[in-house]
Records
---
Amino acid sequence: MPLRSFKLVFARDLRIAFRRVSEWGNPLLFFIAVSGMFPLALSPDRLMMAAGEGELYGLQSLGIGVLWMAALLSALMGLDRLFLSDVEDGSMEQLVLSPAPLLSVVYGKLAAHWLVSALPLIFLVPILGIVYQLPAPALAMIAFAVFLATPTLTVLVAIGAALTVNIRSAAAVIGLIVLPLCSPILIFGARATVLALDGDAAAGPLYLLTSLAFLAVSLGPIAIAAAVRVGLE
Amino acid sequence: MKLPRWFHRFGSPPYVYNLADAIAPWLGWAALVGIAVGAYWGLFVAPPDFRQGEVYRIIYIHPQTAYVGMMAYTLMAVSAGIGFIWRIKLAHAVAVSAAPIGASFTFCALVTGAIWGRPTWGTYWEWGDPRLMFELLLLFLFLGYLALRAAFDDRDKADRVSAVLAVVGVVNVPIIHYSVEWWNTLHQDPTVSNLSEAPSMDTSMLLPFLIMVLGFTLLFYWLLLRRLQAEIIDRERGTRWLQSLANEGAG
Amino acid sequence: MSPTEATLEITDVALTRGERALVAGLSFSVGPGQLALVTGPNGSGKTTLLRTIAGLAAPESGEIRYGGRPIAALEPEERGQLAYQGHFDGLKKDLTVEENLLFISKLRNSSDSVSKIMHGVGLSAFRDRAVRHLSAGQKRRAALAGLRLSGSRLWLLDEPLTNLDSAGRELVASWIGEHLDAAGTAVIATHLAAGLERPGSMLVEL
């Protein structure tokens, strides 16, 4: 039964996502706009000067930070209505009251939304990395690190979304409560990319990202399920 | 899971209110004496540090505020968790009372750390310092909790929703702490002394340091009990025991 | 759980909304084949009572048992014996009528035929239409079709006649009749008891 209801909810949310392309497409466009426009706020000559000898290093290290932060913000935007839409139309109370375990419902929703919001990001991040002159090893690494970071990111934002289903202007509150929780992801992800840029081995931060992903995916849904239940009370 | 019988007395608002009223003055005066003695000892009696000179005297304020902020977050999360699992409203009241105090202490830790940074590092915000960065993130964890609560009109719901956040937060605090420390190892200049590493202190410095830790802890609990009393009054508005208490005070 | 055990017992229940007390000392029980109509003015706590019986909220005090077990302690399969229809239709707007009903039917392990039930509520012609393009009354019909698919023994309905035309109201009344005749149980909150009352139905006034 748990696996069956997981599949059912997963398929349902995926089908809805395909009919509402803007809901997950817009945050991706937002990501492209932010990371694509950021160079306008920089003075390239100064960055070069800071790095010395005309190297690109200043722009590249800044770009890594921008890409990670923009990815984080687009995840925040894309998932804020994850549970709200189900609560608004009453389908969440039907799911909670059905014989399906709430945890498998939560996992189903998370998996579907990871697929539509995080997976495209993994391909977009290295493309935008070209704007910041990142070399191929760093591009490959940032894609892989984003892949490892997105499960944690999805769970953390989902916790924020589940906690705020009763709040009118939820987006700002989600940002405030989720951003500090995301700091480890930002630290390890950016570090792995910088190591790859320098041509060093990045196994350390990658292991840490992986263990955070396992921790988030195993414990996070318990908190999400509790928050969803309270939200319906 | 059943709670022991004696614990249920702590579910009774008048009992807790009166208990807090009886204990609070003792804590308050003890905190005042402790902080006065510790401050005088630390600022005037203790010798200057051979490396940092007079600047080191921040250790009589900064670590204490940071420690109380951390303790407040833990206490908040534990009582919110108890309130959530056993549906004890007073435990939520404790959590709500602890949050603004913890946020204030954490803010003080940030400010005192920055003030110390100016003569030591030549800048108010040494962005590579893990301690300050962690205090900033902890402050945001407090602010997020308070913002989430503030967004609800219904107090019961605010209690239960924010409890989930507090528990999630307290699981994450060690992870955040560790990762910020890890982040710092990358660009720490070894010649610059670090706030977080406790130098082996001489007894003449250690004693006032510990007295200040005790004083700040007592100050926190005094503030907590007073806030808790205010919170109980707010929650119990219109109940008979509160009205008779108000009449007693008037008469 | 045998049908005779499937009794809903509400014992000394108190309900609050926010900090306001709604109901105190409420007790009643409904068994198989019985209907309880919960009436009362707006804001008297009808919806809160139904949500509490469904287990979506906890009562301030008192006990709610179904088949002798506290409602919060029911196993997932036993929870399937209970169906709740609130103010919201519980349908996804972007899915078609048929997709919505198929989802409910699979989620609830229903053996009933979805197309037969769609025909029963007069939505056969709209099976491939997204729910967002249905009228309010049609959405209500689709939602009630979902309720019928659930195969549950205990129906908790909150204002089931809202938005329905007279044919729809008659249809719902006849479904409730069939449900009760098949030893089902129903608790219905409504400010208009007319049209739902049956001989032997219990009136709970809040």
---
Amino acid sequence: MPGTTIVITSGKGGVGKTTTVANLGTALAMRGRSVVLVDADIGLRNLDVVMGLENRIVYHVVDIIEGRCRIEQAMIRDRKINSLYLIPAAQTRDKDAIRPEDMKKLCDHLIETFDYVLVDCPAGIEQGFRNAIAGAHKALVVTTPEVSAIRDADRVIGLLEANLLKDIQLIINRVNQKMIRRGDMMSTEDICSLLSIPLIGVIPESEEVVISTNRGIPLVHEKKSSIAAAFRRIAGRLEGENIPIPSDNHEGGLLGKVKKLLWNA
Amino acid sequence: MEKEFAHAVQVRAQRDGQFVFILDSSLPFQMILKYLEKRLEESNRFFRSAKIIIDLGLRPFRFDEVVTLRDLLKNHWQAHITELRLGHRFDSFFEWASKLIGIPIYQIPVQEKEPEPVIIKQTCRSGTRIEAPQDCVILGDVNPGAEIIAGRDIIVFGVLRGIAHAGAYGNRESKIWALSIEPSQLRIADLVAIPPRQDRSSHTKRYEIAEIRDDQIQVISF
């Protein structure tokens, strides 16, 4: 059975697309799936750095499309997980180097051998975006609970729908529960009602992300991280598991449980 | 005196750089002339060498008035009238034309079917632009970054967060209806308003209407 191509996009830059691709891809591969990550951010590639594979790049996606190498030659296997591969972007070219048809052909070829093809979309809505969505069956839109990111996400969802990509789900990244309780941050419900697409996951804000990026080891390898757990849950939901999304204002931990006991007494 | 003058000539700027002078329908021509002279004087060199479109609106066409206007603009300001719009009163024009050629002129009114309202049956996302010749109905929200432009009324069966421009061709009677009007930009005819940023979700409202009252756009909650 052929696999699925999923594009991870946002419109706004810096909201967590690359982090999501790296961690979600790793989480899916840890469940035994075969996954290939494709970096479509030509000219400003980041996925290789986040995966810790930047030193192993010999060929990249533009080489494949221009026929200078076979697909297998450009695929870099992950250091820890055997079923996870990366096709990096070119750093010395730009987004006009490939066309949407090229990307579609590549993705269609990859799903013959992989369960999941995750495409890391660049920021913006121009050629790079059009290339990245060309081969996708499904889209995950990443946003942060911030007015400008949500505005851009709304625009992108409109463009995806106009391109007949209707299977779109939302990931809200960098959520700060304290700020939501104080009323300084939009709640999950507010965001979902504005964007009107199904929510597939909520990822809390944490310093751990920057640390893991610098080390080149996706967070999902850490058993104890709450962010890793969030990504693992998203991977589960993608696979069809019915995992409820924790709602805002939920107070976890011992203090939370004690408070609940006191109120109910 | 000032108040009467205020509506004598409405000046609008077009995107191509031309100005439209819309003449008031009820004031005597002398007042319009006086207002124009004063306005041009006060605006310094702004209208010098300008291209101007004269819109008679509901005013009757009077050959001598038009010539006076043309000469005033040309001689004092080197401004040219590029277009004369007759607006709604053709009979005065036909009278003048029929005197010229010695034959009475009549126009048989054409029954123009009023354009139907444009109905959008989904939420308008950011980046969407809808243009409707008359009324426009949106069955859904209008998100920030979306624009709805209509010749007459705009009705949003949802939350209006984007830009709505009702009466885009100058119809000040146009209204904007929505279940909820959140801070965005409201435009009716030639007026623009920004609702104040306050916590308006505090009291329950069933729907809101924005319309022009006292020369301002006002939002009334029901």
